[in-house]
Amino acid sequence: MSVRFDRAYAQQAVCGPSRTSFLTGRRPDTTRVFNLDDYWRTVAGNFSTLPQYFKEHGYASHGIGKIFHPGTSAGHADDSPYSWTDKYDRAQATLNTGSKDAAAIHPVDETGGKLQDTVIADNAIAWMKNHAQHGNQPFFLAVGFHKPHLPWVFPKQYLSLYPLSHIHLAKYRTKPSNIPDYAWSDFGELRGYQDVASLHLTAPEYHIADNEQLKLRQAYSASVSYMDAQLGRVLDALHHNGFTQNTIIVFLGDHVTVVALSLFRACQDAAYSQYPRGGHGHRVMGYTIRTDQ
Prior knowledge:
alpha/beta
């Protein structure tokens, strides 16, 4: 059985503050984290985290990929040693994709190595197999995939799932007259990539031509499907190792940016996902905020 929250709102549409909020169960006005730099244990208080709670109550707590926002906002150590039982696993890519700022849209051939989300799934699968054979504790396993975050680097075969002729433009592609200026994105991060910078988008609306919007939406969709395939591999491993019946699965994102729509909104549709082999779930339409533990 599962439940999906259709009105689950992030506390802030920025990675670091949102992750800090739902991992500590506190709002940004308590954590005092409003940017990508501040560490809540330094600027606000020594608040426990969700993985730390499990660790302190007899669980093996293991993190792979991107859970906390890396760097100063997680104490330069992905909040180790507080949150994790053993060494945190960043799971680095083995495929060299060149400069991270070269292109926002970057389909690749994965035969020469593995992208980071592939490695994250591999390591999660290996960890569960090892725990099934040798572990003697219940576990909390946090698996943080990077996609569909920019840049959209993904195995090129996923483009075939989304022919450009099947991609639809956003319903609203220009700034509505009745929204405040701060609600309109200037695509600052996206414009930092060379392929988008070459479009010479101009203020104040930074309008993207329709043909370019289609390519961006195609790449975003391909990135989502690539990540979804890795998630499927992890769920399959959960099943094969005998953990399905006694494991709670929570699937969420830190926030969402609407592709080629320009509304920088602080919401994410689904906070909990239905396990593919599970029974039919419930949908909750009431307001939900990402601080509950």
